[in-house]
Amino acid sequence: MATRTTMATRTTMAVPMLDDFFTRALVAGIGLALTTGPLGCFVVWRRMAYFGDTMAHSALLGVAVAVLLDINMMAGVFAVATLVSMALLLLQKRGALSTDALLGILSHSTLALGLVLVAFMTWVRIDLMAFLFGDILAVSRLDIAFVYGGGLVILAVVAWMWRPLLASTVSAELAEAEGLDPDRARLVFMLLMAAVIAIAMKIVGILLITSLLIIPAATARRFAATPEQMAVLASLLGAVAVMGGLFGSLRFDTPSGPSIVVAALAIFILSLVPRAGPFARRPRPDRSTP
Hints:
With 290 residues, this protein is mostly helical. It contains 13 helices and no strands. The chain is globular and about 55 Å long.
């Protein structure tokens, strides 16, 4: 019995990455990557990277509002991100400014408002670095439940709305001709983005959420032949980036959130290597873009 205990102790000491906090980080990160893959594809297809940044920046204002009102952090972030989406839709309909200008105003304004509101709340101490760059190693079992519960709901809605989302991405006129509602599809997409931002904030941070959405999807685009393949591959590549980033963070003692993004970037760069050089094979037609 004593020998078995000693062997178990040695195994635990020899494999520190199996500690409870690291296991929770892996499980949470993989769950997030599986959720962000399909949504990231729509961000890439719709050329809405700046919209992703705007939604992410609004998360800090959501954090400040949640602390001020003493409500759940994810609920506060989701509510503020949803309000920002509604504001964007209303301002777009007025047509006073271009979409880029509106996104720039909303992005920087919400981030600044969040910082100012946090500064006024002198009675509470908020770790801005954890919110800006994430703290995946501090996730709890409750956080994991939110990640997987929310992720399943998001993926179910994406599967249910896949055809309208895809058709409206190709052409709003085509979607209307097929009897679909492109405005409703866009609203649903914005709400799904708000939900993902709320879930991902603690894991990769406000400033890095968009990277986890875009980089795996951009990598998957080079290998997928259909939109469905691209969505699945983006999720898998995101999961690989999470694992690579966390193990790299453990090995080199680097911040976990940025390490995940660096791992995703490394995978993207590696995806470029086979097509580089004078002996590269000719690229096949890209059918992954709707």
